[in-house]
Amino acid sequence: MQSRKDLLTWMDALEDYARDWDRTFENKPTYFTQEFWYMLVGCMRAHWAGKPMTVGQLVMAMKSGSTRTREDRIKRAVDDGYLMKTKSGGDGRSTVVIPTPSLEALLEGHLDRTLTIARQAFETSDPQK
Fold it and tell me: How far apart are CA 64 and CA 86, in angstroms?
């Protein structure tokens, strides 16, 4: 299993890839490929950094859809067992969204597999091409 540092580096590279895709297609929502990518990865990244996102921050992290659509995506991910909403802060008035252990396992596995594949691809590629 890769270290979390390596997985975070890989997340950065994948997010850069996704952002470049968006720019390539002039940020047109019809070319948006992963409705849940920014939400799930952003949520996990914030959680791993010890700074979980509020519902509002998570809504803002998504790149397409109305606020209602974005909130519906969060609700779907909660209903499907990927995200949890929990009270945070001293007064308990703030609600943060964190990944479930199930989502963490899924994304860690995905990131580990794709990072391994990419590393193997770079290690075996011919630098003269």
Answer: 25
